[in-house]
Amino acid sequence: MFFDNVVIAGVVTVGLMVTFFVGLGIFIWKDSSKRKPR
Predict the structure, then answer these.
(1) In this predicted model, what pLDDT tens digit does every residue of 12-25 receive, in sequence order?
(2) Kind and range of the H or E run holding 4
(3) Residue-wise burial string across 3-32, b where 16 or more C-beta atoms lie within 10 A, e elsewhere
């Protein structure tokens, strides 16, 4: 049971990190695409 809890916690942590970085990347990409190059 302890091993399962550790695995679940690890998967949740990795999932949150991936979601955070993907969201940050999309935010930066949209923000940069809004600006028109001079």
Answers:
(1) 999 999 999 999 99
(2) helix 2-34
(3) eeeeeeeeeeeeeeeeeeeeeeeeeeeeee
